[in-house]
Amino acid sequence: MGSLYNYKQVEAFALIGLHNLLNSANKDNINLNTFKMFLEPLEKLHSKEFAVNYANRLLENENKKLKEKNIQE
């Protein structure tokens, strides 16, 4: 990472990387190496601002799914 990132930006990139890994064919082989493999390309793919917004949308969608699941139970 060539420039400085604040905590929210680092967290956003990590959340996007984890989301991508959990929704990939590698989801049964989650370890630090596979996580790093999914995290590394994100810096080139997304700007800092986009990453934060996208991570927030991913969290909102997951929270909606959890609420719906809790309602059904």
**What Rg, in angstroms, do the CA atoms define?**
14 Å
Shape: flat
Number of distinct helices: 4
Low-confidence stretches: none
Class by helix and strand content? mainly alpha
In round numbers, the mean pLDDT is: 91
C-alpha termini separation: 44 Å
Order of helices and strands: HHHH
User: In percent, how much strand structure appears in the residues?
Assistant: under 5%
Number of separate strands = 0
Helix content: over 70%
Give the count of structural domains: 1
Main β sheet profile: none
Provide a descriptive summary of the structure in words.
With 73 residues, the protein is mostly helical. It has one domain (8-72). The protein contains 4 helices and no strands. It has helices at 7-22, 32-39, 42-45, 48-72. Helix 1 crosses helix 2 (32-39) and helix 1 packs across helix 4 (48-72). The radius of gyration is 14 Å and the shape is flat. The model has no long low-confidence stretch (mean pLDDT 91).
